[in-house]
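Lecture 7 notes: from sequence to structure.
We start with the chain below.
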Amino acid sequence: MEQSKIDKINELAKKARACGLCEEELALQKALREEYVAAFRTALTNTLDNTYIQRPDGTREKLKRKE
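Predicted C-alpha cells for the same chain:
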C-alpha cells in the first residue's frame, strides 16, 4: 500500500477524534482501512507460506495452516 494512503488513513483518524467525519470521509476511511488490512494479510500470508520450523535435532518442516 502506498505511503500516501497510509498517511490519509492517519489524517482521517486524527480528524475523527477531533471533530468527527462526514459521510464521504467515513466511506473513504472505511475503504482505505479495508485496502490496508487486505495488503497486510497478503504480506503475512506470503511470509507464512515460506516459513519453516526448525527442530532442535536439525530437521525442518514447512509451517502448516490451521484448519
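Points to note: The chain has one domain: 3-62. The beta strands are 52-54, 60-62.
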